[in-house]
Write a structure and sequence with these properties.
Structural class: alpha+beta
Number of strands: 9
CATH class: Mainly Beta
Order of helices and strands: EEEEHEHHEEEEH
CATH topology: Pnp Oxidase, Chain A
Strand content: 25-35%
Helix content: 10-25%
Shape: globular
Number of domains: 1
CATH architecture: Roll
CATH superfamily: Electron Transport, Fmn-binding Protein, Chain A
Length: 203
C-alpha cells in the first residue's frame, strides 16, 4: 500500500482467516482479491515491525508498514505465514536482511493510521513516534525485543524461512511464527479488515 499499503506490512489463539495479504509500503491499493472480474475480498490488516540498520534515518531503530498480503499457510510442526513485501520499501530491506520481524494484528481503531503506515515511508518519518503522537500507546518491548502498538489484537514474532520469491511488484517470503501473544489491551475493538478500509475510503 503509495504506492500500496503495507510495503513490506493471528488473532488471539486461532489466526484470522487465511488471505493473500497486501505488501508493505506507501499507498493503499485495491486490496486482496482485486482484479478484473474478481470480487474484492476482505482480509485481516497487519503491520510489520522490522529493525533498521544503525543510523537508519528518520525511522530510528524501527520501521513499520501496513500489510494486507499476509496469511497463515501451515500449522505443524510450526505455524507458518506467507507475506508479500512491496518493492523498494525499507521494511522489505530490513526483513530480508535481518530475517526476523513482528507482525501485529490491527484493530479498527487503527484505521486512522492507514496513511502513516501505508503511504508514508519509514525513511522519512518515525512511525512509532507519530502513532504515539496520534494517541496510540506503544509497548516498547512487546515480543522478541520488538516494539509494537499496545492496542493491537495480537503480536507474532516471525522469522523468514524461505524466499524471497520475486513476483514483480512484490516478493513473497515464508515465515515461521516463533512466538505470539495477545496485545496489551485484550478488551479492545474488532480486528481491522481490508473491507473496512474500503468502506471508509482508505483502500
Amino acid at each position: 500500500m503509495g504506492p500500496p499499503a503495507g510495503r513490506a506490512g493471528a488473532g488471539r489463539g486461532a489466526p484470522p482467516p487465511p488471505a493473500a495479504a497486501r505488501g508493505a509500503g506507501a499507498g493503499a491499493g485495491a486490496g486482496p482479491g482485486a482484479g478484473a472480474g474478481l470480487p474484492a475480498l476482505s482480509a485481516p490488516v497487519y503491520s510489520l515491525v522490522t529493525r533498521c540498520e544503525a543510523g537508519g534515518g528518520a525511522a530510528g531503530p524501527w520501521a513499520l508498514n501496513l500489510v494486507t498480503y499476509a496469511g497463515p499457510v501451515a500449522l505443524r510442526p510450526r505455524r507458518a505465514y506467507a507475506l508479500g513485501l512491496f518493492e523498494g520499501t525499507l521494511s522489505r530491506e530490513n526483513l530480508l536482511r535481518e530475517r526476523r520481524g513482528l507482525l501485529q494484528v490491527l484493530r479498527e481503531e487503527h484505521a486512522g493510521l492507514t496513511d502513516l503506515l501505508g503511504r508514508q515511508s519509514s525513511r522519512d518519518v518515525d512511525k512509532l513516534a507519530a502513532a504515539e503522537a496520534a494517541g496510540h500507546a506503544v509497548q516498547g518491548d512487546a515480543l522478541g525485543g520488538f516494539p509494537a502498538l499496545a492496542g493491537a489484537a495480537a503480536w507474532l514474532e516471525v522469522a523468514v524461512t524461505d524466499g524471497p520469491f520475486d513476483r514483480g511488484d512484490h516478493a513473497v517470503v515464508l515465515l515461521d511464527v516463533l512466538a505470539e501473544c495477545p496485545g496489551e489491551e485484550p478488551g479492545g475493538g474488532p480486528v481491522l479488515y481490508s473491507g473496512k478500509l474500503r468502506e471508509l475510503g482508505l483502500l
